[in-house]
Write a structure and sequence with these properties.
heterodimer; A: about 300 residues; mainly alpha; 2 domains; B: about 600 residues; alpha/beta; Rossmann fold; 8-stranded mixed β-sheet; ATP-binding (chain B); ATP binding (chain B); nucleotide-binding (chain B)
């Protein structure tokens, strides 16, 4: 187990180094000139050249990347061109809000997705099943800005149950989490349904019934732990999906997380922030997958981490 | 438990089984299944009763409705496709057919219990053995956890699971198939049910394990007086365990008879056919020695010191730290036009040997086909060799791509090896179809439109397409019903005579091996322990393992007196070993006439 963790962490670091190279290459691919941006439109060519020299932008790519990489090792993500602050500080200030939102979304999608999938599987072929699958299909298909605006209109504007936007209390959290979670809930309910139907056909379920166990016990003790495994593996991948969703959802609800930060940075071509956010997202995805893999053996003893 | 204890326990004669009052009466049972073309009966108007302490066998081939009958009694018919359309199932005065789910739940496991065919999948992989046994007890008896645990240990001891208490915390995957089936039996019998339904309880098990499990069921029945309904396709198992037999076909009863009458004087033609198709041991003794039959043969394939090992990794750096010694330095020759069989139980390396020969796994050692070493060949050379060696697999349902027509499937090898013009290929396909007993108009159909036996014929046609010199048949008839099996075996023999093919026949079924083989090698833990002509192996087995394999085969004759053999409760040791700790190599010694036996056994 410890050996496995060490190996996976080493792998993760390699992946992150790869990501950092790709994001750094963005600087070169994008047509925007950092020196010009920092200097502002009215600056003279000489000022721009000076700034370029100061930033070391005339050095070869490898040298620049190496400098950036050494900075990363010290937790230095670079400085924002426009806000004139450390990217690390900007991201750190906004990360808790995003993590909270992601947690809320995971709770929402698991609660909705697993329940819907379970009920649909147990009522397979009935109207309930078909109805739930239509709902999940809508959940999967609806773009998040549509879901978000719809929820906002109904629950915040018309009914006034939740605040329209902002950050701070639990009720601020509900609508953004729902919006972010709906997509995953749609996926999970479908996965859970097919996984559960598959498990209910297994021989050990028949054995459990032949023992005279109550249906509740058969479903929750025998079927559910087996059916939930593929869903668990998905949660890791989901964190990656969240990262794109967060940009939209945080903007719709005015949620002060890194998604909004990224959105603003993209609009202003503030490359260091974009790079920083990308890297943090990559870390989240890698950790999420690792976590999903580490949790799996606790549910299925056949899985050995090697 | 030691071996001697096991014997003495089995030897204790308990009060004679009281075949007294009927405990379960089935009356006019009819089960309907809804299919694409409306609903059809899979069990029609079946009536029988089973008495206390009695074993009633429901015997029949696939589709005979035997499993549906058992599921109907248990109220476990797969809904919504199958349903009980009529009849009564009387347990004492209670009609189980009218009981409803809640009432049925209280009966299941308590009064009527069931064990299933697949021990590998009938236990829940994520729950411990203890939990699964304990919940079976607690489902019906209001006792505390500690007491239930005591009862669970008792139940596991009763099915002779060694170190029962420590098994409680294990998960199913840590146990072998035989041990898992014992656990399933322990769960079923923990509450001393009136009726035990055993649906093919030993079909998925190795033959020596099968013998143990059948004996165990008999012993437990004698102690508890349970009525057993044994569902099986294996007439050998029927002869060894049942008191009465019902032969089923297409959901209808063909014949009901006492065991010795049925085997001695079967009333119905179908029963006679069924019994005639059963492969029997002891046929090789009066067979013409193969050398005389074929004249001087030449060696087609020889394996020298063939080994297949798989590395397992572990530790922080994921380095190789253990190794599976699947095949460990075996040598044998296959003559042209002969059938050479590899027998042994699961995990002995027989299928891995087959795969090595077919070029599907990397191996060490030498394989020499027609004087050429396969190992040293380049890509094109290996492709040529593949033409000469073809395979037929075990599962005819899984080994045909369901999206291709069967004609295309048989034609594919010709396409791959670019044999003839497209028109000639199609003609060849038709020829092959007719040769294996199918018709030319079937080539455009898809695999799902064929029965298991027909599919296996298609697989044979595919293997024949390239006119190979050697066909590797890996458990190729194991999944087939006996009557179909007999016909496919006949076809294989005819084709051999006609095309002069040699077969490498891999099987766990000793009776089938005896019927078809010229020479036999017995494998155990990746090595050959005994090799010789079919007569040498079956009439004069020298190695104790060979003897055990032969003795364990159920004999389709109720009057056969089984010589008491030492019952093994232990497990076959594992072929997984640490690095630099290879297993000891056996050396084979000729005990006369080319009959080779592992030396350790000769000395003993």
């Amino acid at each position: 187990m410890i050996g496995y963790l060490v190996r996976r962490l080493l792998q993760s670091i390699l992946i992150l180094i790869g990501v950092s190279i790709v994001t750094y290459a963005l600087l070169y691919v994008l047509p925007a000139d950092p020196a010009r941006q920092i200097a502002g439109r009215s600056a003279t060519a000489e000022t721009v050249a000076n700034i370029r020299e100061q930033l070391g932008l005339n050095d070869p790519f490898i040298v620049q990347y190496w400098r950036y990489f050494l900075g990363l090792l010290h937790g230095d993500f670079g400085r924002s061109y426009l806000q004139r602050t450390e990217v690390a500080d900007l991201v750190a200030a906004r990360l808790p809000a995003t993590l909270l939102l992601m947690l809320g979304a995971i709770v929402c999608e698991l609660a909705m997705g697993l329940t819907m999938g379970l009920v649909a599987a147990l009522r397979r072929g009935t109207n309930t099943d078909q109805g739930l699958m239509v709902v999940s299909f809508v959940g999967v298909s609806a773009p998040q800005f549509v879901t978000g605006l719809l929820l906002l209109y109904v629950f915040a504007v018309r009914l006034g149950w939740f605040p329209i936007g902002g950050y701070g209390t639990f009720s601020h959290l509900v609508l953004p989490s729902l919006t972010l979670g709906v997509l995953g809930a749609g996926w999970y309910s479908r996965m859970m349904r097919s996984s559960m139907i598959d498990v209910l056909r297994q021989d050990y379920i028949r054995t459990a019934r032949a023992k005279g166990l109550k249906r509740f016990v058969v479903v929750f003790r025998h079927a559910l732990p087996n059916a939930i495994l593929p869903v668990i593996a998905m949660i890791g991948i989901d964190i990656g999906l969240f990262m794109s969703g967060i940009v939209v959802v945080e903007s719709v609800f005015g949620w002060p997380g890194i998604g909004q930060l990224a959105w603003q940075a993209i609009q202003r071509v503030d490359i260091p922030i974009i790079m920083g956010v990308t890297l943090v997202s990559a870390i989240a995805i890698v950790l999420g997958n690792l976590l999903a893999d580490v949790v799996a053996p606790f549910i299925d003893p056949r899985i050995k981490l090697r | 438990m030691s071996v001697s204890e096991a014997i003495s326990e089995a030897g204790t004669v308990m009060p004679a089984s009281q075949t007294g009052e009927p405990v379960l009466r089935v009356d006019g049972l009819t089960v309907m299944v809804d299919g694409e073309d409306g609903s059809r009966p899979v069990v029609s108007d079946l009536s029988f009763e089973v008495r206390r302490g009695e074993t009633l066998a429901l015997a029949g081939e696939s589709g005979s409705g035997k499993s549906m009958t058992s599921l109907a009694i248990m109220g476990l018919l797969p809904k919504p496709a199958a349903r009980l359309a009529g009849g009564r199932v009387l347990l004492g005065e209670t009609d189980l057919a009218r009981l409803g789910e809640a009432g049925m739940r209280r009966i299941r496991g308590d009064r009527v219990a069931m064990i299933f065919q697949e021990p590998m999948t009938s236990l829940n992989p994520v729950l411990t053995i203890g939990r699964q046994v304990i919940e079976a007890i607690q489902a019906h008896e209001p006792i505390g956890r500690r007491q239930a645990r005591e009862r669970a240990i008792e139940a596991l001891n009763a099915v002779r699971i060694p170190e029962a208490e420590s098994r409680l915390s294990q998960h199913p995957h840590e146990l072998s198939g035989g041990m898992r089936q014992r656990v399933v039996i322990a769960m079923a019998l923990a509450l001393k049910p009136d009726v035990l339904i055993a649906d093919e309880p030993t079909t998925a098990l190795d033959v020596t394990v099968q013998a143990q499990i059948l004996q165990l069921l008999k012993d437990l029945q004698r102690d508890l007086g349970t009525a057993i309904i044994l569902i099986t396709h294996d007439m050998g198992v029927v002869a060894e365990t049942a008191d009465r037999v019902i032969v089923l076909r297409n959901g209808k009863m063909v014949e009901e008879n006492a065991i010795d009458v049925l085997f001695a004087k079967p009333r119905e033609p179908y029963t006679r056919e069924l019994l005639a198709a059963v492969p029997r041991m002891g046929t090789s003794r009066d067979r013409i020695p193969d050398a005389e039959r074929r004249g001087a043969a030449k060696t087609l394939l020889s394996a020298h010191d063939l080994s297949v090992r798989f590395d397992l990794t572990g530790g922080v750096l994921g380095r190789v730290n253990r190794r599976v010694h699947a095949v460990e330095g075996i040598s044998f020759d296959i003559q042209a036009r002969e059938t050479f069989s590899l027998v042994g139980e699961s995990g002995c390396g027989k299928s891995t040997t087959a795969k090595a020969i077919a070029g599907l796994v990397p191996y060490e050692g030498d394989l020499i086909l027609d004087g050429r070493n396969i190992g040293g060949l380049d890509r094109a050379g290996r492709k040529r060799v593949r033409r000469d060696i073809q395979m037929i697999f075990q599962d005819p349902f899984a080994s045909l791509d369901s999206r291709m027509t069967v004609g295309d499937l048989v034609r594919e090898p010709l396409d791959i090896h670019d044999v003839g013009k497209p028109r000639e290929r199609n003609e060849r396909v038709v020829e092959l179809f007719e040769r294996v007993g199918l018709t030319a108009d079937q080539v455009r159909r898809y695999p799902h439109e064929f029965s298991g036996g027909q599919r296996q014929r298609i697989c044979i046609a595919r293997a024949l397409a390239l006119r190979p010199k050697l066909i590797v048949a890996d458990e190729s008839v194991s999944a087939l019903d006996v009557s179909v099996q007999a016909r496919v075996l006949d076809l294989l023999k005819e084709l051999q005579a006609e095309f002069g093919i040699a077969y490498l026949f891999i099987s766990h079924d000793m009776a089938v091996v005896e019927t078809i083989s010229d020479r036999v090698a017995v494998m155990y833990l990746g090595q050959i322990v005994e090799m010789g002509s079919c007569a040498q192996i079956f009439a004069d087995p020298r190695h104790p393992y060979t003897r055990r394999l032969i003795e364990a085969v159920p004999v389709p004759d109720p009057n056969y007196e089984r010589a008491p053999f030492i019952r093994m409760t232990g497990e076959i040791p594992t072929p997984v070993r640490k690095l630099n700790d290879p297993p000891e190599r056996l050396t084979l010694q000729d005990v006369g006439g080319g009959h080779l036996v592992a030396e350790e056994a000769v000395r003993v």
